[in-house]
Design brief:
With 349 residues, the chain is an alpha/beta fold. The protein has two domains: 25-36 and 260-348, Aspartate Aminotransferase, domain 1; 39-256, Type I PLP-dependent aspartate aminotransferase-like (Major domain) (Aspartate Aminotransferase, domain 2). Helix content is 41%, strand content 16%. The protein contains 14 helices and 13 strands. It has helices spanning 7-11, 39-48, 51-55, 61-71, 83-95, 110-118, 137-143, 166-175, 188-191, 229-237, 246-256, 259-283, 303-312, 335-348; strands at 26-27, 78-81, 101-106, 122-127, 148-154, 180-184, 205-210, 223-226, 286-288, 294-298, 315-316, 318-319, 327-331. It has a seven-stranded mixed sheet, sandwiched between helices. The protein is globular, with a radius of gyration of 20 Å. Bound molecules: pyridoxal-5'-phosphate. The site of pyridoxal-5'-phosphate (PLP) has 13 residues, from α5.
Length: 349
């Protein structure tokens, strides 16, 4: 006889992103950096990787100082996390009890719902409306209740690529002073809009950043969560003390010390996004204008067929048609990679 898990876990739908056998393909399915991290990150890892270094539990003193300088935020306002995923988890564990409401736009990053459900919260969703997929501000404001304990927003949003401006974020923060409002800025570098400057003003604001996307370090699992110091002290209490491993900490430090690498990659990716969008238009494929390093195209009832045909050509893209009719999300990296996808699309579309 097997053990019965908690009811919240029994009720959850399993979430299995397609992570297997990706290595030899052109990976345009996870919005990662498509060329790799700064070479300086590897150099630093090699320099600091010694047998002794691996024997000791991580010491975050250096990385915290470096990141605090880089983000221009006092270190008391920053929590180092095992990717954004841990930021979401710690935030939920700190502020959400079973039965509380968590408000999330749909479609959005799957882990918001995931951690809210694990915690036994009630998830309320607010829909982005295709084809434009503008941020559903009014609908979201209307769904805030006294039971809303967290509001989780990706800016720009995955998978739509659409952003939300600071006035709308301020309206949400004011309408829900009793809720933890997370602005997940995983794709910040591609759009330049950040809520970090609002932290002073709003004690219910939390902002996350990650090294998984533009920095090309998804495998290392490292990110940051920012908020006012009293909140960060509580988040700390709810976080396991060594969730970020020492190599990830070293890599994060080296990564922010090579800002040019990131700026160059962003310039290339934005040019590639324009190229892909123009190519879509030529082929008569509609898409959602994007502020991130991916484009959501509308392929009608051929979405799965297009995904599979590209996979046969060793190009991985992500089907999102189960949540946005006809939607397939394609990561942008270099111009050359965008040309490669377009060349294949031309053959099959
Ligand atoms: C909006 C958003 N947040 C966070 C993440 C993942 O972040 P991390 O790798 O830092 O856990 C993703 C990845 O797809 C994402 O789309």
């Amino acid at each position: 006889m097997s053990l019965n898990p908690r009811e919240a876990v029994q009720k959850m739908a399993p979430y299995h992103p397609p992570t297997g056998n990706r290595a030899t393909n052109l990976r345009l399915d996870f919005n990662e950096n498509t060329v790799g991290c700064s070479p300086q990150v590897i150099q630093r890892l090699v320099q600091r990787l010694t047998r002794e270094a691996l024997t000791v539990y991580p010491d975050y003193t250096r990385v915290r100082r470096t990141l605090s300088e880089f983000f221009q935020i006092p270190s008391e306002r920053m929590l180092l996390t095992n990717g954004t995923d841990e930021a979401i988890q710690v935030l939920i564990n700190t502020y959400v009890d079973p039965g509380d409401e968590v408000l999330v736009p749909r479609p959005s990053y799957a882990m918001y719902r995931f951690y809210a459900e694990v915690a036994g919260a009630t998830v309320t969703e607010v829909d982005y409306a295709p084809p434009v997929c503008a941020f559903p501000l009014e609908a979201l404001l209307a769904k805030i209740t006294p039971a809303t304990k967290a509001i989780l927003i990706s800016n720009p949003n995955n998978p739509t690529g659409t952003g939300v401006g600071l006035p709308a974020i301020e309206a949400i923060l004011k309408a829900a002073p009793h809720a933890a409002v997370l602005i997940d800025e995983a794709y910040y570098e591609f759009c330049g809009v950040t809520a970090l400057g609002l932290i002073d003003q709003f004690p219910n604001l939390f902002v996350s950043r990650t090294f998984s996307k533009v920095y090309g370090m998804a495998a290392l699992r490292v990110g940051c969560l920012f908020s006012q110091e009293t909140n960060v002290a509580f988040l700390h209490k709810a976080q396991s003390p060594y969730s970020v491993n020492a190599l990830a900490a070293i890599a994060a430090e080296a990564a922010v010390e090579d800002p040019e690498y990131v700026t160059d990659y962003v310039t290339e990716a934005l040019a590639a996004r324009t190229l892909l969008a123009e190519g879509f238009t030529k082929l008569g494929i509609e898409y959602v204008p994007s502020s991130a390093n991916f484009l959501l195209g509308y392929f009608g009832n051929r979405a799965l067929e297009v995904r599979d045909a590209l996979r046969d050509k060793a190009i991985l893209v992500r089907d999102r048609s189960y949540e946005i009719p006809g939607g397939v999300r394609i990561t942008v990296g270099t111009k050359e990679q965008a040309r490669q996808v377009l060349a294949e699309l031309e053959k099959i579309w």
